[in-house]
Amino acid sequence: MTHDIHNFIQYLHEEKNTSTNTEVSYERDLRKMGEYLLTKNVKQVDVVTASDLEAYLNHLGQEGRKASTISRCIASMKAFFSYLQESGRIKQNPAEGLKAPKIEKKEPAVLSVEEAALLLEQPSGDSPKELRDKAMLELLYATGIRVSELISLKIENVDLEQGCLVCVDAHKERMIPFSDVARDTLKRYLQEGRPAFVKNEESEWLFTNCSGQSMSRQGFWKLMKYYGKKAGIRSEITPHTLRHSFAVHLVHNGADLKAVQEMLGHSDISSTQIYAQMNQNKIREVYEKAHPRA
After folding, report:
1. Three-state SS for 154?
2. Domains defined along the chain, listed by start
3. How many CB atoms are located within 10 Å of the residue 289 CB?
4. Pairwise CA distance, residues 245 & 144, whole Å
5. How many alpha carbons lie under 13 Å from residue 76 in its C-beta half-sphere?
6. CA 40 to chain centre
7. Residue pLDDT, tens place only, 28-84
């Protein structure tokens, strides 16, 4: 079975051009499945039954695995056995009838407008580091881009005159405007902060660490949690918090959902609709608290 898993991962890499993260995830899930089946004396893919796979999923449930983890494992198994069937290794697909458990969708954590303002006020000094940190936080909240996109920005991606930036991902590029406040903080960082970090004038990265190298996601997360704690914000702050807050605050103030979708880079409008739903929930909550006959 190990050989079949190896061939499947190679197929994904060479034929489907899947990402490294996807390949690692599939391989991890399938190897764990293979190890479990081996304990049940099921060694070959052509003898695996639907009952074997159901037993494995029950085993994961008994181990306390989350519904999202089990759903991901099912997706891995379905892709694997579908590949085996198409390549003629098996006649019937034992994973075909597997059903993923229902996953309770939680609303993303967002900051209130007051909390967002308080967070952005925290880097208030004149040191190069605080100028950089303030520019990063302001730009993240002003545009709603992903943290991975923020730390990947290059100097050429930002147009200070027009007040916009260009985000490029694997599928397309999108142009996003930003506020005058973000532009001013970015200008000051470029003039007074960045030169202290970047000794090599050929460096293309907009934001760098103190050594002049591109900043890591973990590095940004640490500084965001630091400023969140400094601001006295009790709710957990993650790298996505300002992105969610950007979207909710725009929708709350009447922004067109399609425009928000474009700025966030969502390929499907359904991914953006959760922010409209959150706004509806907030309106209902206010109504029920305030209306005398609610």
Report:
1. strand
2. 2-86 (1.10.150.130), 113-289 (1.10.443.10)
3. 8
4. 8
5. 24
6. 37
7. 999 999 999 999 999 999 999 999 999 999 999 999 888 888 999 999 999 999 999
